[in-house]
Amino acid sequence: MKWKKFIIETTTEAEDIIISSLYDIGLEGAQIEDRIPLTESEKAQMFVDILPEGPEDDGKAYLSFFVEEAESGALLLNGEETDMTVILEKVRGELDAVRTYMEIGAGTITVEETEDIDWINNWKQYFHQFTIDDLLVIPSWEEAGDADRDKKILHIDPGTAFGTGMHETTQLCIRQLRKYLTAQTRLLDVGTGSGILSIVSLLYGIREAKGTDLDPCAVDAVRDNREANHIAPEQFELLIGNIITDQQLRDRLGYHCYDIVVANILADVLVPLTPVIVDHLMPGGFYITSGIIDEKEAVVRAAIEAAGLKVLEVTYQGEWVSITARKEE
User: Fold this and answer.
1) Per residue in 248-291, pLDDT tens?
2) Is residue 230 part of a domain?
3) Domain enclosing residue 178, as ranges
4) DSSP code of 234?
5) What is the pLDDT of residues 142-157, one digit of tens each?
6) Which residues does 300 contact at the CB level (< 8 Å), separation at least 6?
7) Cα distance between residue 286 and residue 309, in whole Å
8) What CATH number is attached to the domain comprising 301?
9) In a domain, 130, yes or no
10) How many Cβ atoms from other residues are within 10 Å of residue 194's Cβ?
11) Could you tell me if 190 and 307 lie in one domain?
12) Domain boundary among 73, 97, 113
């Protein structure tokens, strides 16, 4: 299907009011582009490899609304056919009304036509099978070739949760995990995302894994990837919540019972996380971290040592760092 994209230039202060106003005429699901910096709270809840430095906030915001275009060329608004002239009149009317009591900036409207895109599945064109040493990572829409039959095969679809194995930090974690996994390993995977680190560990024969994540999208991703790799639900349980602040979650996970805790998340999250996970590690247990840009290595290492853990290895791939440590027995 095709869509008309209406882009409104306004101010960051007015963006919420305008979105609410346009919702009343049937324009929903705004895409917001602005330069407002993330708050410390927002950063702490983003389990991604690194937050890029953005440009300074200039006070401008661009709001994009998408309206479906029928085969006849008519636009569908509130389930009824209309045309671009009518929609533009309605939008201008709402903008003029908001302008009477607050500054909305330029208030200009630009119209573009999008391509016919499958919004949910379009990302698949960028993800194809690849190997990490003898591990073949393959999405559900591709098949392994005869030459790959001797490899361990991981079926993974990230969906809306982070984690395909393509990123250097994930590969660093996988290589470190393989050094320390045993058939008796109980793994805690903090910031599990798609579940890739837990599932890889289970494929290599560990006893069980538990994962935590802040994002509810991880629930569906983990379930689908677990099923694709024939992992039983009782082998890999996912709990949603923030292990740093959620005491109830920590109690459910249990204390001093994990042979390995792995955390592939931001360095700024690893610092407050590290003293927390010590209580979940068994004596002699291993702590494997990544998501650390090279300039943050010293900060994370200091946090690990301050928590009473002994650093065993520091490994590198590109500009990324993985630190592996151990809890004293």
Assistant:
1) 999 999 999 999 999 998 888 899 999 999 999 999 999 999 98
2) yes
3) 164-327
4) G
5) 777 777 777 888 888 7
6) 267, 270, 271, 274, 289, 292, 321, 323
7) 9
8) 3.40.50.150
9) no
10) 27
11) yes
12) 113
